[in-house]
Each structure stands twice: as C-alpha cells, then as structure tokens.
Design goal:
heterodimer, A: 370 residues, alpha/beta, 13 strands, B: 577 residues, seven-stranded mixed β-sheet, 13 helices, 36% helix, GPI-anchor transamidase (chain A)
Chain lengths: 370, 577
C-alpha cells in the first residue's frame, strides 16, 4: 500500500494522493518504529489454548471437517478443556442430508472412531466462520455482546495451537468459497497478538495446498509454524471411503493423528519427533516447518506443551488461620473490658479448632480401607 | 447537408482546420455555400472554446475538494504526542512510592541520642533496600526516630512526630498482642492517613522473661519486646522493615507479588471469584452448603479491602458428577487414598467440571475458581502427600491465574459402611468457615503473598497478627503499589501500540469513542503517576486500574480490524470510475 505520512488531525485529502512518493518505505518505518512494549519479565507458561478452524463448505469437503474434528478430539484427550478450545466449522457434515450415517463423522473407512460423539462444542458454525470473525478471535476485538466461550481469553503465559485446514494457495487460504485470508493479514494479526501479549508461544499448523506460503510473512518472535506442503505442491487426501462417498481425511492430518494416538497426557514426546515423523513419500508433499522465530530447541519441547494441558500447581501450606477469630472480633475497642471478652472468644474459637483437629485425627484411625 | 446544397456535393470534412471551422462557424444558408468558398475565419479559434474548456476544468477543480471531503474517512485525532511524552516520563522515572520508617524506642534508662540513632538506622536501611526483589516499587525512604524515656519524648525530625507521647509505656507490651496492636494504632493517630505511608516499629525494652520476640501487627506497625541492645534493635528494625513491609516476606529467588502470573485481575479491572462445591459421585452422598449466608458475609471485608485493586464479584454453585481425572492409590498405613504432588497437575478434570458458568463475568474480566472437591466413597478419605512424605495439613493447592482446589473429606467417611444412597447432607457451618480460611490463604497466594508466614530467616520468634480483611494493611499497601505500577506501565504500552497502529493504517476509521477513551486514559494515568510520587497507594491504584481499563477498551474496540484497508486504487475504483 502506498501512502505518505498521515498527519494526525483533520485529514488532508489533497495531499495524500498527490504525495505518493514514499510508499512501502514509510509504511515499514512506521510499523517497525513502534516502540517496544514495556519489557515484562519472561512470563511462565501456565495454560494452553487451541484454535481449530475448518474453512471449507460443501459435502465434498468432508475431509476438512474430519481433519478438524480429529484434532479437536486429540487435544481434548490430551487435556485441553472445551473452555480453552475455539472450534470453527464452516459447514455441518454430521447432519448433512447426504450423510449416510447421521450424526456421525468418521476419519477412517473402518468407521471405528466417531468423531462427532458426545461432548462436541462447536463455537463458530456455518456462516459464522468468516475471515473477519477469525481475525476478531485472534486479535480479541469482539463486540461487547460476544459470550466468553467465543473469545480467545489467552494471556501472556499461554501457548496457543492454531490449526487451519481447507483449500489454499499461494499466500492465501480460502474461506467459505467466497473470501480469502491472506498471509499478510495473518501476519498482521499475529503481530497484534504479540504486542498485546496474548500468547507466549504459538504453533501454527496448516493443512492445505501450498500451505507453507501462508506463514511466509510472519515476523513475530515465539511463533512456530508447520505446513503440509510447500509452494507449488498440493496436499492430498488420504483415502476414499466408498461408503460415505468422499475422501475422509487428508494425508498430513492422518499422519499427525497416527503420531498422537500413541500418546497420552503423561507423555513427553518432543516436537522434533512429531516433525520428523512426516515422510514426504507418504505425504506426497513436503511438510515444511519454520522455526527461525522460535527460540527453543525443538527436541526440548514436549508436544503436550501445545497439544495437551498441564496446569502449574503450588501447594497451599496453611490456611490463613485466625481469620475467623479476627472476623468474629470485628470491632475491638482500644481500652475496656470488652477486650477481655474478645480475647476469651478468640481462645474459645481456637480451642474449638484444636478439638476439630483431634476428632479428625481420631476418625482417620477408625476408617479402615478393606 | 442535403438541404444546404442543391445539386452540389458538400465539401469534404477532411480539408484543413480553417475550412472546417468555417464550415462550423458559417450559418447553414444555401445561398452562401452554393458556388462560393466559405469566407476564411477572421479570428483565432478562441475565446469561446477557451471559456468552455476552462469552465469545465475549473468546475472540476472546484468540485474536487468537495468530492474528496465528502468521501473522506473520519479519523478522530489521537494525542500521540501526549502518549509519547508520558511514556518518556515513565521510562526515565519509573513510578515509585516514597515511604517512611519511624522507629520508636520505649526506654527506661539512658542511651544513645536520637540523632545518632537516626543516622545509624538510615545507613542500615540503605544497604539492604535494593537487594530484595519486590522492593522495586518503593522509592525514597525517609527515616525518623523517636525516643520516649521517663516522662518525655525526643524526636529526630523537626516536624511533629505522629507518636502521642506518654500514651503507652513499655509495660503495656505484656498485654495480649491484639490489644497492644489496637493501642498502638490509637497511639499513632488512629487513622490511616493520607499522603506518604509511614511504617512504625516500636522497641519496648521490657524483660518479661519470654525472650525477645517480634510481633507484626495488622496495621502499619510492628513491635519488638524483650531485652535488646541498640545495635541488635537497629538491625531488627531494618530486617523487619525491608523483609516484610517492603517485600511482603518474599525471599530472594522466589516469585511473588509483582510478577505477571500473580496479578489475577482482568483487563477491565474486574475479578469474579467463583466458589464451587463439587460432588464427585452423587450416588454416594450429596452435599450442599450455605455459602450465600455465611460465605458472602465473611468475604465482604476482603472484597472491600481489595477494592482499589479490582472490583470483585462473588458467585457460588454446587455441581454433581464431577470425578477427578488423576489417579490416587490407596495406602493402608495412612488410612486412606493418597495423591502425590505429581498427580496434582492432572487433577482438574476440565471435561466434566463445567466451572465457567458465570453470568456476571464480561469478556475481559478474570474468573478465579475456588473449588471444594468432595471425593466419592471409593476414594474417600483422600489425602495429598507432599514430596517429603508428610500429608498436607490443608489438602489444598492453587494454580496461578486459575484458582484453587481444596479436597474436603466428608466426616465419617469409610468405604466399608453401607450408607443410604444419595443422602442429602449439609456441610456444617463450622466446616464451611474453616474451608473459607483455606480459601483466604489461597487468595493471598494467588495475589503473590504467602498464605501464612513462617518466621524464616529471622533470628527471633516472629508472630504475625491476622486481619479480618484477609490482608494486613501493610500487605494491602504492597498490593496497591505493585498493581498501580504494573497497570500504569501496561496502560502506557497499550496506548503506544494503539497510536502506532493507527498511524500505520492511514485509511482506517478511528471513531470518536476511541479518541475519548484515549484521552480519559491519559488523564487517569497522569493522575496515577502524580499520586505515586506523593506516595498515596490506594488512589494511585484506582487511577491506574481505570487508566488501563480505558486503554484496553480503546485498543480492543471492535471497529479496529486489521484487515488491510482500501488502497488508493480501491478508492479510485469506487469513486472515480
């Protein structure tokens, strides 16, 4: 975009389009001259979020829905709760009139796993999945009436997994067959997120054709991105389910799931092993990942850092003992006999507490486990 | 043309311009053309054409600014200079609160003069002041000493000391600690006072045979009882002041107040405390509690005390069918089921615990979950085992920025006994109040303080008085200071990113509301900074919270979207074509 410096104040319409002399340079200086946010001490990782987006509509894109639901099932199984997952599905396959198996979505022709079982919480469905809503979720700029379950409420200690699947091309991802998310929009949104400390680390997984071009414009630190194919390559579906009549899963996601089915929430397999498990001959494309913005070594990062959820916990050594007594003795007078009464009340309270302690101990002596 | 010439062909239009113009300018009369050459043009082609062309061009030029003005985008001006100015000021003078230390010696005999004591104390403080981590928000410390011996008092400062001479003597210190605390509070003026906060430490030289002990009260003072010589007294004063009044008991290397994960306040300044009672298996027993009456009553002073830092709402709920998701093993020796600390991170079963049901929590407020987990009959009693093999006294743990969990074993639970299924019981109010004590301890932990102090690192026995507000006044001062500083810095960072974003997208609409919010935010931030230099913690915290909330409102205004805005080509395509 070619713009001259925009003077704050009443706009000068005549000047701006006459002074088209310093296009990109000026824009670049402005975006890079943003003074660094007050340097906060390194935040500690304390929660995980997942944003799973399926951008395709229509029955023949069944596999994209199955991709997203498979990832949803995986991250839930590994511990991320529904309240920290934003699931965006652009169309409804489970209740589609063409679905032979109503209310069921499979990702394998053996039909062993129903992805749409119980407990699926879709946050954005159907026509709500638009580029604008997607960017609003990332940057956090919602209308005030949007409920909490539809917001990405991450903070500076969050690790976010962003998974996108659908039809894509060189530097774009197609949404709903009528609009596009461009790579510089995504890079812009990520930059805004970083400025507001909305994530500590971000892992972007893209399963589309020419996926690696979608994150080519990223520049924010702390971002790791992997795409299923490089520029000029297509990503292929895995197999066709003759019963349902369409392909049910894509190769990249199929192999990702094969990796995760072997894990549970206590595992500490590293990201390196995940990325190395992609075999170009099986994928029929080159899974390309970008780690220049990511500081940690991949073999030290467990996959549960992004795909699972481990809470940081601290033991509470003791209660704030004496609080009740202080509350009962609410308005102590400085001088007078009431003080003596208050003191006696407090002594009674503490005696009662020590009694309870003793009864607890004696109960535990009586409770025998067979 | 057929009417003009009779039987003559009309002259061809490809002839020279002069002829053409003669064709145009001469009136179409048959008599003039037939036979004759049209008379050559006498004047240069000119004024009419010039006037026509000029008028069209002029009307276009006149109309162009009107066109552009009518299609301009509305951008409310942001005071980016003021923002840059405030940011520079904050970077060069980080917000710091001046405090005062006032030492009072209740003496019976003679000793060093006041001035020398004051000097020694000041020297002792200045060496230790900047060593500990959480003291970054405290600014200059002014030291003053008062000595009360016999009937009179001498003070090291020329200004009137707040100490009311003669109201208390060393002999009073043998009374009960709570009583002496209130006596001291009234002797030091009895009000909280505006302006700089002064912390007082009283040395009462009285040998009551119990040895030296330190008591830290719940207002802004502490006292030392026992036989101490001057050097020891001075070092004790320094220790108590730096370690507790300035640092909240946080040791070097520990994380506590001031770090981001211990400030659980939403960006709009709201916090919702959500208390949940979880019945893991209602087939065994179903418990209910009287939280509405008891809990809310007990928590009201705490909510009031934390008001400058956050607006707190309290909600409670009872949930059923909420098993835990980690495994416990049964231990016959200890008489129950045991969870180790390694299982705790997997304890919260987010799939089945639907805790986030708050209706009062808006999009940007923070929800802290306080959960009482009642185990099922199979796993009851459930104990938490610490790494050193001991059982936890509280059976409770927290997760920073999330909340806390207490495992409460129902009284009389034993696996063998047959109970009527699904009996409905009530958690007794005594049990509820004790659980609330644990929750207050957890709330303190979530805000970065210790749930209760153990006198670590101090050579003498130290006791801490407990306040019904959940936090002692000096702890509240610490919280106010840290939250004020951090909110101020975060507000300025947000305003700067907003300003640079707006400048980098020249064709983005900036609504008036955003401009207004930025101005209000700047005002509140300046007020907060001014109050900080005066040392007023609570109003500075209030203004800083407000400034940050407004800045975040402006930055997250839904009309700012980072989709690339229309380029100049787009503008031409819409309006010009």
């Amino acid at each position: 975009m070619a713009f001259a410096r925009w003077v704050p104040g009443p706009s000068r319409p005549v000047l701006f389009f006459l002074l088209k002399t310093l296009p990109l340079l000026v824009l670049l200086t402005f975006s890079s001259a943003a003074p660094p946010a007050a340097s906060s001490p390194a935040a500690v990782h304390n929660n995980n979020w997942a944003v799973l987006v399926c951008t395709s509509r229509f029955w023949f894109n069944y596999r994209h829905m199955a991709n997203t639901l498979s990832l949803y099932r995986t991250v839930k199984r590994l511990g991320i709760p529904d309240e920290r997952i934003i699931l965006m599905l652009a169309d409804d396959m489970a209740c589609n009139p063409r679905n032979n198996y109503p209310a069921q979505v499979f990702n394998n022709e053996n039909h062993q796993l129903n992805l749409y079982g119980d407990n699926v919480e879709v946050d954005y469905r159907g026509y709500e999945v638009t580029v604008e809503n997607f960017l609003r979720v990332l940057t956090g700029r919602h209308e005030s009436a949007v409920p909490r379950s539809k917001r990405l409420l991450s903070d500076e200690g969050s690790h976010i997994l962003l998974y996108m699947t659908g039809h894509g091309g060189d530097e774009f991802l197609k949404f709903q067959d009528n609009e596009e998310l461009q790579s510089h929009d995504l890079a812009d949104a990520v930059k805004q997120m970083k400025e507001k400390h909305r994530f500590k680390e971000l892992l972007i997984m893209v399963d589309t054709c020419q996926a690696a071009t979608l994150f080519s414009q990223l520049q924010s630190p702390g971002v790791l991105a992997i795409g299923s194919s490089m520029k000029g390559e297509n990503s292929y579906s895995h197999h066709l389910d003759s019963d349902i009549g369409v392909s049910v899963v894509d190769r990249f996601t199929f192999h990702t799931l094969a990796f995760f089915e072997k894990l549970n929430m206590y595992s500490n397999a590293s990201l390196n092993s995940l990325f190395n498990s992609y075999d170009p001959s099986m994928l029929l494309s080159t899974a390309y990942y970008r780690m220049d913005l990511y500081k940690r070594a991949l073999n030290e990062v467990p996959v549960t850092n992004f795909f699972g959820s481990v809470m940081k916990t601290i033991h509470t050594d003791s209660a704030y003992t004496g609080f009740l007594a202080a509350h009962n003795a609410e308005t102590p007078l400085p001088i007078g006999n009431d003080i003596v009464d208050d003191v006696m009340l407090q002594n009674e309270a503490s005696a009662r507490r020590s009694n309870i302690e003793e009864t607890k101990v004696s109960f535990s002596k009586f409770c025998k486990i067979k | 043309m057929a009417e003009i010439a009779g039987d003559e062909t009309p002259p061809l239009p490809s002839s020279s311009g002069a002829e053409e113009s003669s064709l145009l300018s001469s009136p179409p009369s048959p008599t003039a053309i037939s036979g004759d050459e049209p008379p050559p043009r006498t004047r240069k082609p000119g004024t009419k054409r010039l006037v026509l062309t000029a008028s069209v061009l002029l009307s276009f030029l006149v109309g162009l600014p009107l066109l552009l003005k009518s299609t301009e985008i509305h951008r409310s001006p942001l005071p980016s200079d003021a923002i840059a100015d405030l940011s520079r000021r904050l970077q060069s003078h980080p917000p710091s609160f001046p405090c005062g230390l006032h030492a009072v010696f209740l003496r019976s005999g003679p000793g060093s003069p006041v001035a020398s004591l004051a000097d020694q104390l000041e020297r002792a403080i200045s060496t230790q002041h900047h060593l500990l981590p959480a003291s970054s928000t405290a600014g200059n410390i002014s030291v003053s000493v008062t000595i009360q011996s016999g009937g009179g008092c001498t003070s090291s400062t020329a200004a009137a000391s707040p100490w009311r001479c003669g109201l208390l003597t060393a002999a009073d210190s043998v009374r009960d600690d709570e009583v002496f605390d209130e006596l001291l509070h009234s002797a030091l003026g009895g009000r909280d006072g505006d302006g700089m906060k002064v912390y007082t430490i009283v040395i009462a030289e009285d040998d009551d045979g119990k040895g030296t002990r330190v008591v830290i009260g719940k207002h802004r003072h502490a006292w030392v009882v026992g036989k101490v010589d001057e050097a020891e007294a001075l070092s004790l004063i320094g220790n108590v002041f730096i370690k507790y009044f300035m640092n909240g008991g946080i040791e070097e290397g520990e994380t506590g107040i001031g770090k981001g994960e211990f400030m659980p306040v939403g960006s709009d300044g709201n916090v919702v405390l959500s208390f949940s009672l979880l019945n893991a298996d209602p087939n065994d027993w179903v418990y209910d509690w009287e939280f509405k009456n008891i809990g809310e009553r007990i928590l009201t002073p705490v909510v009031e005390a934390l008001r400058p830092v956050a607006d707190i709402n309290i909600e409670s709920q009872v949930l059923y069918h909420t098993p835990k998701s980690s495994y416990s093993y049964s231990d016959d020796k200890l008489g129950g089921n045991v969870l180790s600390m390694g299982d705790i991170p997997f304890f919260v079963n987010s799939n089945e615990w639907h805790l986030d049901t708050s209706i009062s929590a808006t999009g940007r407020s923070k929800v802290l979950q306080f959960v009482v987990y009642i185990p099922s009959a199979r796993e009851c009693p459930l104990y938490l085992q610490l790494p050193d093999g001991e059982l936890s006294k509280t059976n409770a743990f927290i997760s920073p920025m999330w909340g806390g969990v207490v495992i409460w074993n129902p009284p009389g639970c034993s696996v063998g006994s047959k109970k009527a299924h699904g009996t409905r019981r009530q958690m007794s109010s005594q049990e509820l109040m004790e659980t609330l004590e644990i929750f207050i301890g957890q709330l303190r932990q979530l805000f970065g303080l210790k749930p209760n102090y153990h006198a670590q690192g101090m050579d003498v026995a130290t006791k801490f008085l407990v306040s019904e507000k959940g936090f002692a006044q000096w702890e509240l001062d610490l919280l106010y200071r840290h939250h004020a500083c951090s909110n101020l810095l975060s507000c300025v960072a947000t305003l700067e990113s907003l300003s640079s974003l707006v400048q980098s997208l020249p064709r983005m609409i900036v609504m008036d509301e955003i401009g207004r919010q930025v101005e209000l935010s700047l005002e509140a931030a300046s007020l907060a900074q001014r109050n900080a230099t005066l040392g007023i913690g609570d109003s500075s915290a209030v203004s800083a919270t407000r400034a940050r909330a407004l800045a975040e409102d402006a930055f997250f205004h839904p009309s700012i979207m980072s989709i690339s805005y229309a380029s100049v080509e787009h503008y031409f395509a819409i309006y010009m074509v």
